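I had to read the description of the data format several times before I understood it. The format is easy to grasp once an entry is in front of the reader. For illustration, here is how one protein appears when written out as sequence plus structure tokens:
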Amino acid sequence: MKFLHISDLHLGTQVYGYSMLEEQKHVLDQVLACAAERKADAIVLAGDLYDRSVPAADAVDLLDTFLTQAPCPVLAVSGNHDSAERVGYGSDIFAKAGIHMQGKLRKPLYTQDFRDEWGTVRFYFLPFVRPETARMLGCGEKTSDGAVAWILQEAREDAAARKAEDPTFRAVLIAHQYFVTDQTAEAAANDIAVGGTDLVRISALDGFDYSALGHIHGRHAVSGNNWYSGSVLPYSFKNAGPHGGLFVEMKGPGEIMVEPVDFTPMHAWRILKGPIEELTAPENVAAGDPEDYIYAVLTDDNVTDAHDRLVSVFPNLMGIDFDNARTRAAGAFADGKGPGAELPKMESLDRLFAEFYEMQNGSALTESQTETVRQILEDAKEVQR
């Protein structure tokens, strides 16, 4: 059984006012080519197909084209940015064509079986879980940790029973959630500053041979074969670097090979720092592709027409910031708080608010303030739905 695991497409998103749609089409073409060339048995989409619950028409068209051209079955769940109802619309009809889209949370979980030379591989579909959504199914848990564990218990028991009957049976989970090690979850249980209410213990995934995860934009394994594929594009300068997915090959029980697959964006993401004269010098402009997405951090104490001078040589200039005597006095760049600093992961409105706050106050949001803003925006999205 071979499949390509990707997540967090965020189709239709804008970054610093730039539409990412052409970038996304460019990457999705590479996804299709990779699946075809490697003869994948499935493409797995682990949530956040769209960037918002009511996606723009061109974003819907792009996903439609991708699904239509897919050379193999597509298995997808909704993420926290998606509308569960929209992702799941027509799912029974699409399933007959090999497109398995699960938007709304259900119990028991939707499953899809594949057969290979070793036996059966069953995929369990877990859309994004909120405690209030799980409550509608009879769950009494008040945290994401408890709700996800409650939802998955039945699936884990099913997988265990199947393995007892057939030792070659393999179970794969597709989920979009914030999974962390049990130690991290324990430490954060009463600390909202690090998102304690959203964290889910990785032990909830015990019993699955592979977990295809989405939600975190950096590609990594939380533990064992519980993998985040990361977003298909950086979507922020903090996450600049290789992005793509994971090509997974499952043979007999315990024989799993996971290979990172990088996709090439149309434009690289670069942070340039220094005096404006230095950044715009012809030899420095020519040192990289001037069409890249650029975030400029100017160290000049006094500079005029910065935007016009920069955009004349870097047409895809996304932002300008200053790291000089004035901003340092205000604390804007203290302790490495700049565009490439290790800040909590933020998306769209979260990021815009954070940038506005920093511009007005000369200092970045704290982790606790960031979490408060994120929760307010999530609540607003629920009202919108």
Q: What stands out?
A: Confidence is low (pLDDT under 50) at residues 192-196, 342-347. The first strand starts at residue 2 and ends at 6. Residues 61 and 137 are 33 Å apart (CA to CA).
